[in-house]
Structures are given as structure tokens and as C-alpha cells.
Design goal:
Low-confidence stretches: 32-53, 407-421, 441-452, 617-632, 642-684
Shape: globular
Subcellular location: Membrane
Biased composition (Gly residues): 653-663
Biased composition (Acidic residues): 625-635, 672-684
Number of helices: 25
Family: Belongs to the glycosyltransferase GT106 family.
Strand order of the largest sheet: 4-3-2-6-5
Strand content: 5-15%
GO cellular component, one term: membrane
Mean pLDDT: 77
Bound molecules: 2-acetamido-2-deoxy-beta-D-glucopyranose
Amino acid sequence: MKGDAGGKMIIKSKLKWVGLVGLVLSALSLFTHFLLARYSYTEEGITEYQAITIFSWRPIFENADLSSNNKLYKRLWGPVRRLESLQPHAKPRAHYSVPVSESDRYIFVRIRGGFHEIRSSICDAVVIARLLNATLVIPEIQSTTSSKGISAQFKSFAYLYNEDQFMAALANDILVVKTLPKTLKGARRKKEIPSFKVLNSQSPYYYLHHVLPVLIRHSVVELVVSDGGCLQATLPPDLEEYQRLRCRVAFHALTFRQEVQELATKILHRLRAPGRPFIAYDPGMTRDALAYHGCAELFQDVHTELIQHRRLWMLKRGIVKGNLTVDSNTQRLNGSCPLMPEEIGIILRAYGYSWDTIIYISGGEVFGGQKKLIPFHAIFENVVDRTSLTTSWELNRIYGREANLVDKYPKTPPSAEKEMRHEAWKTSGQRPRPLPPPPARPKSYHIEGWWGWVAESDNEPESTVIELRTNAHKLLWEAIDYMVCVEADVFVPGFDRDGKGRPNFASLVMGHRLYQSATAKSFRLDRKEIAKRMEEISDHLYEANHTWIKSVRSHLRESLLDRLTEESKASKSLSFLSFPVPECSCLRSESKGASTSQLPAAIKVARSCPAWMGKDVVSRPGDKENEDDLDEDDSGPFGLFFRQSGGSSNRNNGGGGGRGGGEMMSSKEETQMEDQEEMDGGDR
Ligand SMILES: *[C@@H]1O[C@H](CO)[C@@H](O)[C@H](O)[C@H]1NC(C)=O
Ligand SMILES: *[C@@H]1O[C@H](CO)[C@@H](O)[C@H](O)[C@H]1NC(C)=O
Ligand SMILES: *[C@@H]1O[C@H](CO)[C@@H](O)[C@H](O)[C@H]1NC(C)=O
Ligand SMILES: *[C@@H]1O[C@H](CO)[C@@H](O)[C@H](O)[C@H]1NC(C)=O
């Protein structure tokens, strides 16, 4: 019996082994199957660009004349020649003293806010440190440290920026230390150091007469900055050097942490790999901005409610004045709402950018997200963002090693806190007692998900640790987007105001581009004008006629230059960094061709560039005429959007979204279609 049983067992275990081997084999075969599938998947896209198919972007192009002498190419991508003599020059001009080392004056700054607010606040903090001859302690960025979600590897400033580069770049301007001296640290911990909550429009006078005396008495002050800055944007003429200091901080000293920098560079490489120029587009559709400007009705359903929720919250806190319900269409027609991705798509197509133009969508938050972006994806084939150009592994790596929150904080309540409250309730107090607290509401708030709480509650739930962590990640995403936007061949902002009515992320990008590469195309759209034009074609959006397209083209062309004047009025008084000209620029001594008189009035740069910058203006004698030609030039496709894309090949409207190629039409058909289109337009 025993032997029998033993035999059975042996057979059983043998069977197990066979089973296991079988399992392994089938797993292997499955694996190879996947490999093959993957392989053939890339093979199939043979006409497409191959090298980067590991990302979700599969570029599809038609052959186009990309020679930069082509007239159309110049109009779309060429430099704005009239700004050619404008050069970055943020170095001190007159005598500039070395930083004074008053060893007993420290300024400690705590900054709250989003990416663009942090950036301008740091610049202001540096200026104030110099103004007061104080040593600046590396600012603390609250949005990262206060969320315990980020990796322990980083301190707050170093999470985003490169500390050493910051200190080295400012060595001639101010003294910077990484932390307070020991004696003062103790005082800080005991909350004994005087603290100022400062506004973004604070004057130099305030610092010299209110903060300085306290600083001298206590050796240290703390500035709490939650307003997107702590020094007024316009400074009196005798403080012009301080404006240039702002530029040096923003454009030279503030570089991102190395890992972030590297990933952004990688993304730029991948964008440029197909050998074509690209557009960066920042929709600027953040929930706060939409709420502040009363644009809720441009959205539907839960999105509208979410925006209104926010607006109510803002009204209660006095951040925004007015009624809760606002006629969003009036706001839109007034240019007070972001341009929707669809509108941007239409005007870009009208300007002449073809359907296969590479467009990078920037922004840590595109509220209403995918739904609003669908029409845009339908208009342009190669729309990408940071997620389509990186692997999730690459993104995870820049976050650093993070504690595994998912284990510690289960997504579904009951939470630890709630349990504790229950315990406390059970054991304390007298009877009879009030009812126990209601159970914590499960929360479905999610960055891009369905915002389930809206229907149930008037109060938005507190942020969870995971959300705080997402906010910290958002800073890194925006850092990457910032670099891509600054380097882009063309930049288009959908909106230029943030959730406090001030210049936003895109404004900083525009300022940076104006400083660093004034000739690169940055469209300063007049939203009111564009909204007006959109109204004209609202009942046949995709079938505009020649006249309309021409008028859009001329508007866009004007927005490259003529709107500089208005922008300097509208933005400069709110944020110096959004328009750092003329203080931080100089005029390169001109040769033939471009002349100063061509510069718009707003750019009253009087200062010639120092000799070491060289004299050659790139433009050659003949170019000037070409430029004038270009202004008149209306070459390029006039047919809009899906039907016709100029050049030799074509695609159809591709049904839902137009993805994945289309039928080819013969040129004859195409011409007929174009004619038809024009006739259609003429009829209306
Ligand atoms: C800072 O130092 C400079 C140079 O020594 C001096 O002219 C200026 O008055 C000082 N400012 C303050 C606020 O101490
Ligand atoms: C708010 O609404 C009321 C009535 O609807 C209107 O009279 C008033 O002008 C509105 N206020 C603002 C600031 O729009
Ligand atoms: C339109 O916008 C301007 C500023 O851009 C503002 O002064 C004006 O009050 C707005 N008008 C309406 C009707 O909202
Ligand atoms: C072109 O379209 C615009 C807007 O739809 C319309 O107002 C205009 O009359 C049209 N012009 C011609 C010549 O058809």
C-alpha cells in the first residue's frame, strides 16, 4: 500500500513538473508571440518615421518642400527679421558693486504657488536680498515640501532647480547660503524670527523702510510669498540695474535640476528627430484661470460645475469679484477666456501650417483635457506632449525614489483618521451625546478622471497625499514644458492669464523668448479679434473662404510684431519677466538692411550692444526686400483642414478624428475640391 501511494505521489509530482514545463513553454510562446506582434506592428508603419516608434507618437508626414528658401517655409518658420537687431544683454551696464557681506543679515523666503509664480518669486527675492545687502537663504518652495509626497532625496528648491548653478551664477550679485546659520535655525524652529507676508506689488520703499529696520534688529527676516512675487514689476529708473538682475536670475541663474534638464533635452531631440520644425502650444486652460475669468459655460456638465465650484471658492475668499454666474460667451468675445484648442487649430491651419505639422502641447493641466483636444487632434496629425515622447520609466526617474503611498494610504476609505475619530468618540465625553461624525466620503477626485464628489458635496475634499504629490510632479512637467516652449520654433499661447488674473506660464515663456531669441516666432494673439472672426464662421467652421483666411493671416502676422506694444502695456506692469525689454536687451549695431526705426515703439532699446557681441547682423542686403515680399505673400494652401492640405498628397477627413492616413486623391480631384470649396464660400 505504502509503495503504491509512494508511486502515485511520484507520478503526481512528475505530472506537476510536466505541467510546470508546459506552462513555462506556453508562456514563452506567448512572449515570442507578443514580440513578433510588436515587431510586425512597427514593420507595418514602414512609410512612417521609424526611429522613435517606441513612444506612443508615430509621426506621419507627407513630403513637403522643407528648404528654408521656400517662401511659404519662411512665412511659417522663418525669423521675424525686424527684431533681428534685438540681442539679450542682461549684464550690469554701469558701475556695479560686489555684493556687500553684512554677515548679520539673512533673508529667508518661503514661496507658495505654481510653477510660474515660483519662478518670478525667486527673481524678486534675489532683488530684495541685494537691495537690503542681505544674504539670501535658498528659498523654500512650499508646494513641494509641504506635500510629504515627494522623494526624500530632494529639498524643496533642489526638487526643481539646480542649487549650485544658482549660487554660482549669482556670485557677483548676492550672497547665497544653503541654510541659515545654526543659531538662527534654532530661532526659526521656535518661530522667533520676524515674518512678513508680502504682496506681489510691494515697493522697494516698503522693504527699505519697513523690512530693513527689523532685519537689522533681528539679523534675519522671513518673507512669506504667496502672491506670485514680492516686488512690484515696474521699478523707478534709478533701479534699472535691479531689473537686469531679475533677468539674470530668470534667464541664467535658474536652471532646472540636472535630471529634469536632461529629460527635457531628450524630448527636444525626439521632437527634432524627424528633421522638421515644430510648434509649441500652451492652452493655458487651468481650472483656476477658467474660474477666475468666468469661462465655465464654455464647458459642459461636470466640467462646468467644477469650474463654478472653484469660482464660488474664489468669491468666498475675495480672490475674484463679481457674480457667480457669468455670461461666458460675452467673456469669450471680450477676449477674457482662453482660446479653445479647436480655434487655435483652425487659425494655425488658416495661417498655412499643414496637417502634418508637429505640435507639442504644453501644460501641467489642460482642464477639460481630452474632450477639448479631440478637434485639435483631428486637425493636426502629429500632436504630441511630454507623455508621448517619454517612457513612464523616464518620467518616474525624475521624481526620484518615492515611498509607496498606495500601500500606506489605501485609495478607498475608511481612513486611519476616521477610525481614530470614532475611537475618540466612543470613549470620551458625557452622555447623551451627539451623533457620531458621518463616515468619510469616498472620493473620486482625480487629475483627469471623473470628479465624482461634485454632485454630492458643496465642499471640495481636502487634497490627499497622492494629489499633493501630483502637484509636485506637475512642477517638473511644467519645467520640461517650459524648456520645450522656450526652444520651440514657433510658440502659440492659448491664454496669458492665470487664476489670479495675472500673467501666467505662457507669459513667462513669451518673455524668455523675447529676451533670448527675439526673432523666433511667438504669436501674441488678440483673443478678442480671433473670437470675432470665429463668430463669423461659427456655422461653417471648417469651410472658411479666401477673404476670411486672408484676414486671419494678416492678423497673425501682425501679432508677431505690432502687438508687442499692447503686450508691453498689458503685461509688463504686472510681471516684468513677461516683457523684459528694453531693460535686458541691446541693439546690435546694424549693417545694411534692418534699421532701428523698424522696431515697434514699445521696444525703445536705446542701448547699443557692446563690441564683444560682434557686429554682423545676419540679414544680407537682399533680404530686406524679401521680407517685404513676404508680408504681402499669401502663397500656401487656402483650402482648409480635412479636405485639402496643399502640396502633392492628401488625406481625407478620416472619419472620427482623422487618424491613420487617408485615401489619396488625384491632384485633379483636389483642385476641383478646392474650387468647389471657394464657390461654397462665395455662396454664403
Ligand atoms: C548696501 O551697500 C551699499 C554699498 O556698500 C550701500 O551703498 C547701500 O547703502 C547699502 N544698502 C543698505 C540698504 O544697507
Ligand atoms: C450681477 O448680476 C446682477 C443681476 O443679474 C447684475 O445686475 C449685476 O450687474 C451683476 N454684477 C456683475 C459684477 O456682473
Ligand atoms: C472686456 O475686457 C476689458 C479688459 O480686457 C474690460 O475692461 C472690460 O470691462 C471687459 N468688458 C466686459 C463686457 O467684460
Ligand atoms: C467669406 O466668409 C465670411 C465669413 O463667413 C463672410 O462674411 C464673407 O461674406 C465671405 N466672403 C466672400 C467673398 O464670400
